Amino acid sequence: MLEDLDKVGAAIGRIPSGCSILTVKHKGRSTGVLVSWVQQASFDPPCLTVCLKRGRPALELVEASGRFLLNIIGEDSTMLFKHFGRGFALEDDAFSGLAVRETSYGPLIESSIAHLGCDVTQQIAVGDHDLFVGAVGAAGVVDGAAPYVHLRKDGLSY
Fold it and tell me: The CATH number of 19-146 is which of 3.30.110.40, 2.30.110.10, 1.10.443.10, 3.10.450.50?
């Protein structure tokens, strides 16, 4: 039992994270979603974890395809926050107005500063989210670009 939920939320909110756009494509449908719960999980093989809230359309496509592309965004990513922050239904064109190119893992957003293509090795239910472990199979990076770093005021909500 939690002693003080407000203090728990404030303390969790102080854990720094980056923000990325997870993209996925399966059988002609594609989407993207803003994610902040991403962490390296292994050196050998290189793996990372990412959490998706249940009910998000991207979760359905990640489960079906078994892979995803993590587009890491840079310090000046206001436009991408506005674009992906509202969320998309599967029938929406999540990439309208953006420069993207297709990869075997999902759409690559050309303005991202790095990307990681991952094959899902595990899916674990964690509270109201599902945690995916992804083995990295492809990557790219823009030299000298700095990532966006995010702190939340309250670690109990987005």
Answer: 2.30.110.10
